Amino acid sequence: MSAEVDLSPPEVPEPTFLESLLRYGLFLGAIFQLICILAVIFPTSKGHEYEETEFTDGKATEQLKKPKGLTPQLRQKPKKESKKKR
């Protein structure tokens, strides 16, 4: 009953270059994702504020509107006229 118990830590092989590259690449990917998520939550673009002020101006909105009469005509394809076979 006096058996010795080996309490030493198990031998772990050294990580290879590919394993360490993968590990740090995953860390960088996670950091990039967090930055992207924070950018969506807290937008701080000054150009966006400039666009909003431009759209509130009446003259700017009139210039941006396209004539509605021309757009449906451009989208329509000419219909093929086919002869009925008898």
UniProtKB/TrEMBL annotation:
Residue segments, region Disordered: 53-86
Gene Ontology cellular-component annotations: membrane
Family: Belongs to the UPF0239 family.
Feature: compositional bias, Basic residues: 76-86
Membrane topology type: Single-pass membrane protein
Record-linked Pfam families: UPF0239 (PF06783)
Species name: Pogonophryne albipinna
Keywords (A to Z) from UniProt: Membrane, Transmembrane, Transmembrane helix
The UniProt record lists the keyword Cell wall biogenesis/degradation: no
InterPro entries (alphabetical): UPF0239
Compartment(s) of residence: Membrane
Basic and acidic residues biased stretches: 53-65
Sequence intervals crossing the membrane: 20-42
Protein name (database record): MANBAL
